[in-house]
Each structure stands twice: as C-alpha cells, then as structure tokens.
Amino acid sequence: MSTTTFPPSDPLTWKQADADVHVATRDGEFAGFVEFDGTAHLVRDNHGTELGAFDSLDAARSALESRHKAHAQERSGPVSRAFRRRPRRARA
To answer: Left (φ > 0), alpha (ψ -120 to 50) or beta: where does 71 sit?
Structure first.
C-alpha cells in the first residue's frame, strides 16, 4: 500500500489513453481515470473506487480533483490526542 501524499495544490495531469479513456496522474503517480461508456463519463480513483457518473468530461475531471483535495485535507487534519502526548518513560 502506498503512503504517498501530495499537497492539494499539485494539479492533476491528464492524458488520453484511448478514444474513451482519460487517465490522471499527480506528480507521476496514478491518480484515477475517466471512462466514457457511451452515455456517461464514469470516474474511478487510484484504488478503483467508482466516484460517480457525469454528463461531461469536465464535470468528471472536477469530481476526481475534488476527491483528491478532500483526501489531502483529511490527511493533514488535526493529530489525534494520543499522538500529541509526550512519550512516557518506563518506571523501574
């Protein structure tokens, strides 16, 4: 499992892999893709989780970008109380 994190300001880079597939990367790492199934643009993240179906490619791309920003904010959120405490020394 990768623990790579990216600042939310790093934009996604998009490449068209096929006539109906667009792949996103962030800093060279796979970030997800959009696939057009003939009726809608389906978005999947870097773990293959479906994020939804959208009418336009721009809306689908925005959904993936929003997902990455939300995850970056979750990871950079406050540290739990257990990790803020100083480690205690063992008593003899």
So the answer is: alpha
